[in-house]
Design a protein that fits this description.
Layout (H helix, E strand, L loop, with lengths): L1 H32 L1 E2 L3 H8 L3 E6 L2 E8 L2 E4 L5 E2 L2 H13 L1 E5 L22 E7 L2 E11 L2 E6 L6 E3 L18 E2 L5 E8 L4 E5 L9 E2 L11 H12 L5 E4 L12 E7 L4 E9 L2 E10 L7 E2 L5 E5 L1 H7 L3 H9 L2
Antiparallel strand pairs: 1-6, 2-3, 2-7, 3-4, 4-5, 6-10, 7-8, 8-9, 9-10, 11-19, 12-13, 12-16, 13-14, 15-20, 16-17, 17-18, 18-20
Helix pairs in contact: 4-5
Amino acid sequence: MKVKLIAVLAVISVLLIAVALQQQNDDRVDDLQSRQLLSEEQLTVVNQMDNLVVAKAGVEVEVVRDGGRWGVVSKNMFPAQPERIAALLHAVRGARVTAAQTDNPEYHARLGLDTSAPQNATLRVTMGAGEESVGIIYGNPVGSGQVVRFADENQVWLINRPFGMTVNDVEWLDLQVTQIPMTQAASARWTHADGEVLEVEKAKEGDYNFRLAGVEQADQQGNERWTNSMVLALIDLRAQDVKLRSELELELDEPMLQMQVRTWSGAELEASLYDIDGKYWLLVDHFEQPEDSNLGVNADERWAFQLGIGQVENLNKRQSDIVRGGESD
């Protein structure tokens, strides 16, 4: 009986392996039968792209290459996220046609490919290089793929994977303002509008935790996370939005907080925080670092960075907050 059972199991195993191999072969055939969505001419335009427009439901984002960087036009050419540009290019270049669909424009609306349809939610991507451009319209998902057509063609194609991209211009911005490793920060000084000063420091290079300057260690034991979070909120800061300083009436207001951070290598960051009509804006007033340092700080003096209330609460600490916060745990 055991011999028969082993024989049956062996036959089942062979059949399963055969099915798996057949499926693998079918996938390889599908790959061989598919082709790249872009022609060589279109791929050349995409590779040399200097202008990009992503549009959906009457909203569009335009991103233009200016020198070596991409800028978001609606945000006064503030730098765009390189990662988002790279993701879009990767998706467009990697798209493969798996089947030809209809070439009858009467079916475009049903397939989500009619850009003139009311309440249209079709995504359109236009990539330009000089006078040349490639426009792709993305329609409904089909299985694990999606139907598409080129903007100047009626022919519909089914591609191997779906594509999506935001048309919210803020989500295209590179809003990482500062990026300084915590281990490199050596000391910090916070000056409030009423004149109160808060200073924190580290005992030695290589330490992670800050401590309050001029306060006995016994009185601040266990408060490290409060002091650390205050400094970290500045040196690893990602803003929520950005605006030209010239569009804010900064000269009419005094900063609610001025901040300074120094690193062990001699880099120095100075920033100020403003409350303007209930919104909080941070300015990078000064930044310098040694030539052999590569700390990431957007010190472009044109910009003011909008912060959320949680970020402001982390930044706007006083010595009594930190000490009392540690004692209340």
